[in-house]
Amino acid sequence: MERIYDILGYKDLKIYQDSSFFSFSLDSIILANYSTIRDRDKKIVDFCTGNGVIPIILTRRCNKVIDGVEIQEKLYDLAIKSIKINNLEDRINIINDDVKDFSKKNLNVYDLVLCNPPYFKDLENSTKNISKEKMIARHEICINLDEVCHSANLVLKDNGTFSMIHRTERLIDVITCMKNNNIEPKRIMFIHEKKDLPSNMFLIEGQKNGKSGLKIDKPYILYNDDNTMTDEYKRIQVEVNL
Question: HSE-up of 129 (CA within 13 Å, CB side)?
Fold first, then answer.
């Protein structure tokens, strides 16, 4: 069932979601809010864009035209509806395509690539969601981590930025895939539920053909010791519009 959500922290921004699909969540919101956008960046693309929440938020951070690529047609349709309800047709282009195919047709044209990819390997014994749509969103069925990094390398200009969010348990996999595809890790921000708990997610940025040199940001904490939301988390909360 389709519902319209408010994106808090951004005046009048709304998003379409369908309960039969994997809904966007905190990871997409963090990626959209905390990825680096340089003044010189002209062309931006969001891989695996889903219902388009990342490009929609990015329109409040910059005045660039933003592309989004989504392989699932039903999610593509939701993204189109979300763009129309926000009157952003002149700011966002959504392409219904496989990221792997899209990248081969758009070589060396983007300054910034973002991606909230499927997190889990497609293993025979993996615990998977019931619906095919949710499986594709969560598991590396249509695209795996190396293919995401390879596709980013193809579309990025020299010294362009690749920004991705992922589960901390796959940090080594992510760094290895980035370096194998000529994307040098430059910045990592670890995300923690509380300051004394281990990180469960991280945001990483790399530069195509960049020089070595990695910066670790201060950790991003979601909850205070008394279980109240931190100020940073409050700013990017998402709420259902009932």
Answer: 18
